Amino acid sequence: MIRGIKGVKDILPDEVGRWQLIEAEARRLAEVYGFREIRVPVFETTELFARSIGASTDIVEKEMYTFQDRDGSSLTLRPEATAGAVRAYIEHNLSASPTAQKLYYFGPMFRHERPQAGRLRQFHQFGVEAFGCTEPAADIEVIALLWRFFSALGLPDLTLEINSLGEAGDRPAYKTVLLEFLKKREEALCQNCRRRMATNPLRVLDCKVPECRAATEGAPKLTDHLSASARGHFDAVLAGLKALAIPFMLNPRLVRGLDYYTLTTFEVTCSHLGAQNAVGAGGRYDGLVETLGGPKTPAVGFAVGLERMVLALPSAALPTPSKLVYVASFGLQGLSTGHRILYDLRALGIQSDTDYRASTLRAHLKQADRLGAALTVIVGDDEVAKGLTIVRDMTSKEQVEFPLASAAKSILTLLNTA
Ligand code: ATP
Ligand code: MG
Q1: Looking at residues 33-58, what average pLDDT do you find?
Q2: What is the distance in A from the centroid of ligand 1 to the CA of 248?
């Protein structure tokens, strides 16, 4: 037997209702907030990701699915979609538009990580990217959308953590201070962090190893080294969140696993999720469009992990399934009449089904029960001869008769009044 790949999951019909609900709400709210959908490819040139996400990040160092195309060029399955969205933004000259470009996307992402609950190798994200505005209001809008999305679906026990990474110019001075601090505690750090000290010291703050966390507990804060404008931006974002009554916690060590972030960064965690508790994260990336060869363009966005949302979604959020009408037809005349009724019911948008293998009323009723039908339409040769059909309420077992000619319409009325 050929099996699926480790960390790459099937989403089966019984689970898909949660996905559909989450996706529909994401799409609805993104549009409500003025974002428009963009669909970018699942693979791109490797260089796009290396240059945007950063060569010394976990993603680029060890998590990318990179392969050689037939012509020898290096391609990579996207580990995230911001890079692709920015590439498309530049390539299609969206910056020429006089209006801000507010985009959203859905889709699978690929990272070679150790599979566990809430951490997969193919996972799915919903994300937004707002290009063009440096104003703190744009950060606030993106965070408000994220918060509204989680609230609308009733996700419990969320924490919004926020930090500022400053402007690019704020970092060199901070890095020096941080390195001094880290050097004194080098023995306490994991191998990875010792290496990161040389390549990308901010990453050390992001390490999940408990010993590293403890050792960097009192690390100097980047927010104490912000330029006046970065400080002003951050304060404005925090004031805006307060004005909208969106609760947040300052987390001075939130640096995020991608190099392109500047100024505001944030992450939302859900305490019901165990170790992999981040449901969504994002921030500002004012330098990325330029880094990838476009015009200087500020931008801010977020990405939500849909697998983790599915895990955290309360069952109460799920809508009651629509009522199914089952058609039980048998006998020569009954069968063809039944098929016609089914066709008419479906034309009216009524969720309806039958089982072509069942040839007796008994067998049909059994299948109707298994499918959870609300009503069963019974039509055998006798009913056809009388020009009527019997409609059985599967809960009360009450039966009513309708003329065949208008059966579908009568059933629609019955469903709407029930
Ligand atoms: P984490 O700290 O959990 O590894 P991250 O910082 O790598 O997250 P981002 O790249 O910012 O995450 O992606 C945004 C969201 O996508 C995360 O908050 C998470 O919900 C989800 N996510 C990231 N990696 C995975 C994965 N391997 N499997 C499932 N979901 C993921
Ligand atoms: Mg990660």
Answers
A1: 95
A2: 20
Burial of 27 (0-12, 13-18, 19+ CB in 10 A): middle
Question: What is the number of the ligand closest to the CA of 265?
Answer: 1
Contacts of 174 (CB under 8 A, 6+ apart): 166, 220, 222, 225
Mean of pLDDT over the chain:
95
Give the per-residue pLDDT at 229.
96
pLDDT of 258 higher than 80: no
Q: Among 282, 285, 171, which residue's Cα sits nearest to residue 227?
A: 171
pLDDT of residue 55: 84
Name the maximum alpha-carbon separation found in the chain: 93
Distances (CA, A) of 298 to 95, 167, 240, 301: 11, 12, 19, 11
Taking only the tens place, the pLDDT of each residue in 290-339 is: 999 999 999 999 999 999 999 999 998 898 888 999 999 999 999 999 99
**pLDDT of 93 strictly over 80:** yes
Residue 418: is its pLDDT beyond 80? no
Encoded tokens for 401: 């008769």
φ/ψ of residue 69, rounded to 5: -75, 170
Handedness of CA 146, 94, 286, 46 (dihedral sign): positive
Query: Which two tokens mark 303?
Result: 């990405």
pLDDT in tens, 109-165: 999 999 999 999 999 999 999 999 999 999 999 999 999 999 999 999 999 999 999
Cα(142) to centroid(ligand 1), Å: 18
- Ligand 1 site residues (CB inside 6 A) read 80, 111, 113, 118-120, 123, 125, 256-257, 276, 278-281, 303, 305, 307-308
- The residue contributing the CA closest to ligand 1 atom 7 is 257
What is the per-residue pLDDT for 7? Answer: 97
The tokens for 148 are 């509204």
Which ligand approaches the C-alpha of residue 301 most closely?
1
- Summarize the confidence of residues 86-100 as an average pLDDT: 95
The answer to whether the beta carbons of residues 244 and 188 sit under 8 Å apart is: no
Q: Which atom of ligand 1 is closest in space to residue 304's alpha carbon?
A: 15
Kindly give the distance from the C-alpha atom of residue 276 to the centroid of ligand 2, in angstroms, as a whole number.
Answer: 9
